[in-house]
Amino acid sequence: MSAPAQDRTRVSTRALLVAGLVVALLVAGVASYYASAHPDGLEHVAEQTGFLDTAEDSPTADSPLADYSTKGVDDERLSVGIAGVTGTLVVLVLAGGLALALRRRGPAGAEEDPADERAHAPERA
């Protein structure tokens, strides 16, 4: 006959989501400080072609998290970390809200528990 099935540890969805959140917050809060200080591609091209001086400030240039930093925080490392963590949490809340709003729902009146469906399913041999 076949070899006995090996026990496999299953990771719950919640544990996976929590681990992903922790990693994202660590990257946003710690690793973001070490990001390149060089200008991005568009800014570099504008500088090379000579029209960087014609750029105007964004209407959000005075916002609390403008320019990847936190207004009012003097420590640069902490300022960038707070901005990164805040941005990550905002994206998480927006994406989570959108996912909840758009999640698939069964037809009206079909409120049966999925566990009941499994209990009534025929067994496989």
From TrEMBL:
The keyword Ubl conjugation does not apply. Pfam families: PDGLE. Keywords: Cell membrane, Membrane, Transmembrane, Transmembrane helix. Residues 116-125 have a biased composition (Basic and acidic residues). Its main location: membrane. The chain crosses the membrane at residues 15-35, 78-102. It comes from the Bacteria. Residues 48-69, 104-125 are annotated as: Disordered. Residues 14-104 form the PDGLE domain. The keyword Cell cycle does not apply. It is found in: Cell membrane. This is PDGLE domain-containing protein.
